[in-house]
Amino acid sequence: MMLSAQLGSGRSEPVVPSLRMLIGGGAACPAELHKQVR
């Protein structure tokens, strides 16, 4: 949800600047998702 909001905004600065990281669970992120989030 946050990733789609960021990508949909068309802005390079974060939509929520105070949000640093949002990861749930202990499983590793898929490589493509990791690239998009970074």
From TrEMBL:
Keywords of this entry: Ligase
Q: Which GO terms describe its molecular function?
A: ligase activity
Give the domain of life.
Answer: Bacteria
Q: Which named protein is this?
A: CoA ligase domain protein
What is the protein's species of origin? Mycobacterium xenopi 4042
